[in-house]
Amino acid sequence: MQQVKSGDTVKVHYHGRLTDGTTFDSSAGREPLQFEVGSGMVIPGFDNGVMGMVVGDKKTINIPVTEAYGPKNPEMIVAFPVTEFPEDMDLEVGMRLNMTNSEGHVIPVVVTEIGEENVMLDANHPLAGEDLVFDIELVEIGAAPSRIIMP
């Protein structure tokens, strides 16, 4: 039976949860997730977790923070002046907003604290700092995609 190796295109169904059991994502009711193993399309722990599986295999993988979205970066938490928000905006802790940086890139942030003068915004990935658990089922292994090598 063919086992998953780096470069294969695979399809998996998955259920992702935090170590406390809270679900953060699932492919239930959707098409399976398709990705090229080893290409960086998914977090390293997920990539490593499917290696060696055969179609029909089901397993649970525990992914430490270092192989997931990394630790929370304190430099990604910024104080933003309250005066820079629209006056009619009802800010709430946990609110998700999008900011634009000087190059025009959109950066998703979460309001973590609201003070008299500043609002604390966290631009870390929502799963940064978390160990993750995935239940995965390998649905399909495809051939490695064709590549054109230039001389």
Set down the secondary structure blueprint.
Layout lengths: L8 E10 L4 E4 L6 E4 L7 H7 L7 E6 L13 E5 L14 E5 L5 E9 L3 E5 L9 E11 L9
Antiparallel strand pairs: 1-2, 1-3, 1-9, 4-9, 5-8, 6-7, 7-8
In short:
This protein has 151 residues and is mostly beta strands. It contains one helix and nine strands; from the N terminus they run βββαββββββ. It has one helix at residues 44-50, and strands at 9-18, 23-26, 33-36, 58-63, 77-81, 96-100, 106-114, 118-122, 132-142.
Spans where pLDDT lies below 50 across 5 or more residues: none
What kind of oligomer do you see?
single chain
Instruction: Please summarize the sheet with the most strands.
Output: 5 strands, antiparallel
Nearest-integer average pLDDT: 93
The span between the termini is: 35 Å
Fraction of residues in β-strands: 35-45%
Number of helices: 1
Q: Output the radius of gyration.
A: 20 Å
H/E topology pattern: EEEHEEEEEE
Structural class: mainly beta
Residues in helices, as a percent range: under 10%
Overall shape: elongated
Number of strands: 9
